[in-house]
Structure formats: C-alpha cells, structure tokens
Design goal:
The complex is a heterodimer. Helix content of chain A is 0%, strand content 52%. Chain A has no helices and 11 strands. In chain A, the strands form 2 sheets. In chain A, strands 2, 4, 5, 6, 9, 10 and 11 form a 7-stranded mixed β-sheet that branches. Chain A has a 4-stranded antiparallel β-sheet with strand order 1-3-8-7, with no helix packed on it. Chain B is an all-beta fold. The chains are: A mainly beta, B mainly beta.
Chain lengths: 122, 106
C-alpha cells in the first residue's frame, strides 16, 4: 500500500533553513508527482510547490519563489522540501502529498504524509 | 491566481441532518475542483475529485456538484465522524489554490 512518511518535528531560529523529507513506498516512485502544502496553526492549506520525480522538474508559487526548493532522490524514493530565511510566520505543519491520475488525465492529491511541524522561534 | 471562496465559514448541524457547503471560484475552472476533509491532527483526505467523483472508499452520502465558478459539497445525512473541516481546491491553473475551509460542527 502507498505510504508517505515524513521526517520529524523541527525547531529553528529565525533566519535559518529547514529541510523536510518525505519517503514514499508501495509503488514505483517515479510514476507520480508530489506537492508540498503548508498549514499554519488554525489556518487553511497553502500550496508550496510541485516536483516530478521522473524529471526533477519543479514549480513554485510566486510567494515562495527564491525561498523554497523541492528536490528528490530517486534511489531513496524520497522528496525533500527546503525552506530558507525562516520567520515566525513559517511556523506551521508541512505536508507532502502525492498525485493520482484519474480518468483521462485529471490529477488530484490522493495520498498525504503525516505532516511535519516546524516551529520557528528565538 | 484563482481565488476560492468557501461559505459558510462554520456550519452547525446535528447528526442525521443534511450539510451543503459552497465553493465559489474567482473565474471559471470548468470542473477541475476537489474537496478534502481534514480532522484535527490529521492530514487532509481526498473526498471528491473533478467536481463530482467520489474518491476510493468515500461513502455515498458525500456528493459533489457544480461547474464553472460555483460548486457544492453535500453530505446527505451527517454521521458523527463527518464533523470536520472541508476544503475545496482547484487544479485548473497554476498555482493550485485552496479555499479557506468550512468547519462542520455539532
């Protein structure tokens, strides 16, 4: 069965960077794309970016451009999300999510990791 | 960027009642819309994809409708486990965007 297991909680100082991993199992890693989603405490879901494990191509929303980097290690079936220049506003739970293909080519987030809490505090 | 506006913010209902949640897009998104359910301390779960299709294992009491800019999620008869927050998401255009959520509470 498909599983996405994320790395553990982190506490970071303002200005630092954090790198979170998401290890996939139960299927062929390169077959499906991944996304990262941020959720601040008590808030909604915010898309942070996309990666194709097959090609390594990425896409980011404008508000995170230059501050986020999503990478993958195909040999480890793992995707990573690194967020730099952290501020207290980055305190959140970060989720990885894997797409599934439906019908004739629709893609939605079928599988989610358990989430990783990042706390930014001095 | 496509903005999704969900209403109401909170829906207070009792088990057995019908829930209707709304999601309005700032421009037409055809039927490229999904609904997710999130319970406290858990990751979101896909309920409905491409406007009207139930994901695997989702009970028939959940249904999605709409196209263009106006969409609805209906829960025909609320079960205790349905009290949660529901988000809509559009995948018509980059960037992917989510609504701000509707909390269904007892």
């Amino acid at each position: 069965q498909v599983q996405l297991v994320q790395s553990g909680a982190e506490v970071k100082m303002p200005g630092a960077s954090v790198k979170i991993s998401c290890k996939a199992s139960g299927y062929t890693f390169s077959d499906y794309s991944f996304h990262w989603v941020r959720q601040a405490p008590g808030q909604g879901l915010e898309w942070m970016g996309w990666i194709s494990p097959a090609s390594g191509a990425t896409r980011y929303p404008q508000q995170f451009q230059g501050r986020v980097a999503i990478t993958r290690d195909t040999s480890a079936s793992t995707v990573y999300m690194e967020l730099s220049s952290l501020t207290s506003e980055d305190t959140a739970v970060f989720y990885c999510a894997r797409e599934d293909r439906f019908g004739s080519g629709w893609y939605y987030y079928s599988y989610w990791g358990q989430g990783t809490l990042v706390t930014v505090s001095s | 960027e496509i903005v999704l506006t969900q209403s109401p913010a909170t829906l207070s209902l009792s088990p057995g009642e019908r829930a209707t949640l709304s999601c309005r897009a700032s421009q037409s998104i055809s039927i490229n819309l999904a609904w997710y359910q999130q319970k406290p301390g858990q990751a979101p779960r896909l309920l409905i994809y491409h406007g009207t299709n139930r994901a695997t294992g989702i009970p028939a009491r959940f249904s999605g409708s709409g196209s263009g800019t106006d969409f609805s999620l209906t829960i025909s008869s609320l079960e205790p486990e349905d009290f949660a927050v529901y988000y809509c998401q559009q995948r018509y255009n980059w960037p992917d965007t989510f609504g701000q959520g509707t909390k269904v509470e007892i």
